[in-house]
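Lay summary

Proteins are chains of building blocks that fold into shapes. Our project writes down both the chain and a compact code for its shape. Here are two examples, one after the other.
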Amino acid sequence: MNSAFEYIHQSQAILERIQTTQIDAIERAAELCAQTIAGDGLVHLFGTGHSRIFVEEMFPRHGSFPGFHPIVELSLTFHNVVVGANGQRQAMFLEHVEGLGQTILRNFVFSPPDCFLLFSNSGINEVVIDVALEAKRLGYPVIAVVSLDHCTRSAALHSSGKKLPDIADIVIDNCTPGGDALVNVPGLADPVGPGSTIGAAAVTNAIKCLVAEKLTALGKPPIVLTSGLFIGSAASKKRFDECYDDYRARIRKVYGC
């Protein structure tokens, strides 16, 4: 088996572990999100570094719908330049600055029945712990998507001594092995091919699909960003406007409007 096939094989194993071990947690997370959105609340999404991917995977993109509020801090996620101004070193440094999470959340207004959905493969970096602790201090439920293997094998970094699973009300394992990289190449000392993207994206979309199912069953079907391949170009453009208008109306409260 060459390295490409090995990566696909290992990725399939991650998906199988999610299917056999995480459906109950995904169900509970989806129920909380559905009740939040049905009650005109927001599911606040947060992640730093690579975990920004799953924030944007949830909303906005095709096959997604309003009710989720992405909180993306560019200083923690803007990595494309790698070095120089706004480089990766700065972002990785800022992930470990305690107090930054609370400072970020202070920019928003939260109210029941809001909840939080946080993404962090390691579950230990200080900023995401700050956000989780602040959300709980304010009285809001927290869902965490982490690699439990990586998290349990890592030392806590936050001064509280807590990791994300210690704080969250619902913990979903992305089922990625600790260290993330999946493939050992003969003659190469270090493994390559991270798997957390596969696991966390699968969890994200499983939650999204189940939330859509639950909202529809409640008589509150979501306004879905839908491709023109399904409904035609004109209808798709109209749907985008409807979706963004609905999103704008929902998030006005978080900016104190």
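And here is the second example, written the same way.
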Amino acid sequence: MKAVGIRELKARLSQYIREVRRGEVVLVTDRGEVVAELRQPGRGPPGESGTDYGLRRLAEAGGLVVREPHDPALYQASPVRVEPGTAERLLDDERADNP
């Protein structure tokens, strides 16, 4: 996947069309903001972002394993307990030593 500004796209449209034909996704930008995507027809559902498309292709090729969303309940709470304000006090002490 690559990004190209509108001016660059207009100047080298044939080159970018060839890249799209080879399966590349081209993000079109206007002043740094992505405003369009060029891709082969039928490559990904309408509305799928270029990033999602790229990640899906990686997963299909076996280069990425997609798991369930992160669940904080799977992790136990730390047994380490400190008094409130400890981190602030330690930072203040550290800063006082290093003016």
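What can we say about the second shape? The helical segments are 6-11, 13-21, 50-61, 86-97.
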